[in-house]
Design goal:
By secondary structure, this protein is α+β, with helices and mostly antiparallel strands. 50% of the residues lie in helices and 16% in strands. The chain has two domains: 76 residues, Ribosomal Protein S8, Chain: A, domain 1 (2-Layer Sandwich); 31 residues, no CATH class.
Length: 108
């Protein structure tokens, strides 16, 4: 029979593997705190994942009531595609309620 410590260790290892893949793909991870059993363990797993792939990771909370927990690598290269995606997200957040045509004046 498996002990609780063994099961917890395997769940932690699986989380580390998931975060490693996300760091390798995007350089960042975000989770909703309400969906996590332990935010401190998630942040620890993020730092372990970064260490295993050789990058430095910082973690923190975001939102009015700390609704999100995040982790970001310092060493992930930012591509033009990343910049375009970030710009689109910001424009969507800022201009979505005002107009569906983009920024005021129609310029990019």
């Amino acid at each position: 029979m498996e002990g609780l410590g063994d099961m917890t260790g395997r769940l932690f290892a699986r989380l580390v593997e998931t975060l490693q893949a996300e760091f390798a793909a995007t350089g960042a991870c975000v989770a909703q705190t309400a969906e996590l059993d332990d935010c401190t363990e998630w942040r620890r797993a993020a730092r372990v994942a970064g260490h295993r792939i050789g990058v430095f990771v910082v973690t923190g909370y975001f939102g009015h009531a700390d609704e999100l927990v995040w982790a970001k690598t310092y060493d992930h290269p930012v591509t033009d595609a990343d910049r375009r995606q970030a710009r689109a997200l910001v424009e969507n957040a800022v201009f979505a309620t005002a107009s569906t045509d983009g920024p005021p004046g129609g310029t990019e």
